[in-house]
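Section 5.1 Outputs to date
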Amino acid sequence: MTDRWTTRGPAQTRALGKRLGATLAPGDTVALCGDLGSGKTTFVQGVALGLGVAEAVTSPTFVLVREYRGRLPLYHVDLFRLDHIEDLEMVGYDEFVSGRGVTLIEWAQKMRERLPGDYVEVTFAVTGQTARTVVAIPHGPRAEQLVRQWHTPR
């Protein structure tokens, strides 16, 4: 089951993320793919709202990972500046991707071989000045369930 949405600005992109955040459970991983400026961090801000994160969410480009506290821990990973996949070991990637929180990985296409066996791939494409096409592709049974729940508004 692949799902597709069109958002017409940052507020709609955040709202779409917030809806996903409300459905996430411990151990869920979301791989975010798309060009620079396509809406990945804006989407993560929405997911954080759906998880009840109170603090402002910013891109972890220079630190690789930021952790936020909400209903569940949120690990926000940004691989834009990652030079070597081995660098993930230094930030404890294996521990948090299989832990008690949820993991969102920007620029996940840089490390497909290190993604867990079950994850949702969310791809962002710029289709206008503020418009974005967002496509969700589940990889695994939990991911399929997650996309189904996300698609069905509560």
